[in-house]
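Q: How would the structure tokens look for this protein?
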Amino acid sequence: MVLRFKAVVLHGLVMLVLSSASSLAAQGSQEETLQQYSQAGQQALAAGHYDEAESDFKKLLEIDPNIAEIHATLGVVYFQEKKFDQAVPELRRALRLKPGLARASTLLAMSLSEVGEYPEALPGLEKGFHQAPDPDTKRMCGLQLMRAYTALQRDRDAVTVALELNRLYPN
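A: Here is the predicted structure in token form.
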């Protein structure tokens, strides 16, 4: 992970040399800690141990709250735990930090749908349903899109999506 280096203004050459040495040592230690929590969190997430993953990614945010991928991954953990109201702000923060995170955008739309924010979820769900490269995401977006259209009393659109889902996933 790339860490941002903060500029340190110091008086005198000796102070500059001493603080640079201690700063590099702290950054090396911080990077190792980030790596440890990241690996542990990813392993816990992959194993379905969401409590552990949540704890590890929260610790990562304490160390550096400005890494979009940490917020996005914590959003995934919350989504898996069905804590959609907690997933939404994490995914929003991830997208503010790095707007190009396409999967985070799709997951945000699905989380918004889960908490009943259908008008806000609709554009992301439509995009996910029509453009998602993997079939599982496309299917999940389609199901959420049907739900959103129904809640918004757009029954024709819901039926259109249902027919398209049936065509794409006949089983």
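The two ends are 42 Å apart (CA to CA).

Residues 42 and 113 are 26 Å apart (CA to CA).

Upvote if useful.
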